[in-house]
Amino acid sequence: MAKVAVFGYGTVGSGAVEVMVKNAEEIAKKTGVSLEVAYILDLRDFPGDPMEDKVVHDVEVILNDPEVKVICETMGGVNPAYTFTKRALELGKSVCTSNKELVAAKGPELLEIAKANNCSYLFEASVGGGIPIIRPLLTCLTAEKIEAIQGILNGTTNYILTKMSDEGADFADVLKKAQELGYAEKDPTADVEGHDAGRKIAILSSLAMGQTVSYDDVYTEGITKITPVDFAYARALGLQIKLIAMSKMTEDGNFALVTPRLLDAKSPLACVQDVFNGILVTGNMLGDSMYYGKGAGKLATASAVVGDVIEEAKNEGRTIPVLWKAEKAAVSNYKDLSQQYLVRIAGTDEAAALAAFPGGKVVKVAEADNEFAVLTENMKECDYDAKAAGLSVISMIRM
Ligand code: NDP
Ligand code: HSE
After folding, report:
1. Does the beta carbon of 193 lie inside 6 Å of ligand 2?
2. Which band of pLDDT confidence, cut at 50, 70 and 90, is reported for residue 98?
3. Which end of the chain has fewer CB atoms at under 10 Å, N or C?
4. Which of 3, 69, 200, 387 is catalytic?
5. Is the CB of 185 under 6 A from ligand 1?
6. What is the DSSP letter of 52?
7. Strands 393-398, 341-346: parallel, antiparallel or unpaired by DSSP?
8. CA-based angle 202:157:360, to the nearest 5?
9. Residue 238 neighbours by CB under 8 Å, 6+ apart
10. Count of beta carbons in the 10 Å neighbourhood of residue 144
11. What proportion of the chain, given as a percentage, has pLDDT over 70?
12. Chain center to CA of 113
């Protein structure tokens, strides 16, 4: 019997407990591991909850119990999650987490501490919710040189964009609904401004390169400036607007960025809807492989957390290897990345716009007065900036 403690009995933590209790028989039958939820650490009490007698408020109670071998950290935030995780690992207790903010900030350090203390630090649920993506990258794809990772890595924003695009829904209303459904971060600014997806692509890029791609080096734009008129232009061109996190290793450099993008209807990411996430990994031998599933939500995320709990319980007394060095990877300036741009321009001077963007395609929609848009040819963003400087640009979306 493996004694497990859960730090944080919120959406994901309570889901992890539910998975461990409901699927106890299935887990034991398949893996030979019997899990017992021994403690739940939270700030609150949970009167009437079937697990109410497991709740403690002092982390020391858990850290001082030598029988607790595995901890799920589902509190969120960097502190005190960092301090609690570090203490647990130093005591030889394995930790698994859904907390991408902590993994992006302190991943390599916590992995080193785990290694020094013959225990493990796993974080499958930190990227893509319930989608298996970290373990495939660390095991099945080790023969590959990863050339690109592109993904819809945030469930909340994909849910919002889907509802705005398909139903004409209002941004604020859909965000509220995403919060009610337990998809959003405590401060949803992290979702809608792209910071959450930025942390996730930093984690995936670091694992792909084996070095640290710092979250601070990821250029990030969110979805707060996307309007119904942008969706009208996208529809006119048969394109979808998605928040895409991207890591590309090209001849021009290594790029890591999060921005809204126009996707061709044929792109496998274009049909990823609602809270679902999709991750397209390009390897130099395999080519493209795609990972798809629910990117947020209680039980989907908890499923990935409990998968890690089982791995850690099975590997008690040893470290499950994760290659991620603290050494920083070089990240190039996003202005050197080549792509197309859909530029909305005020007025009617199409000739001036096409002089700036020769070969561009002019688009007009009934939803917008006294403006038009140009879909440009491929060019580096620094060149786009120079060409757009003389025009009355309303907004731009990359493709
Ligand atoms: P919640 O806010 O629902 O849960 C966090 C829980 O931890 C709350 O019960 C909170 O208590 C408790 N907590 C906070 N600080 C402490 C502390 N110092 N000591 C003890 N308990 C504490 O968040 P989620 O479950 O949604 O998210 C948890 C983590 O998982 C985050 O890192 C999030 O980014 C990540 N994640 C979330 C997903 C989702 O779909 N929700 C999906 C994938 C990852 P209180 O409420 O009283 O503050
Ligand atoms: N807020 C996050 C999202 C949770 O919406 O994707 C999953 O990491």
Report:
1. no
2. very high
3. N
4. 200
5. yes
6. G
7. antiparallel
8. 85
9. 264, 265
10. 17
11. 100
12. 24
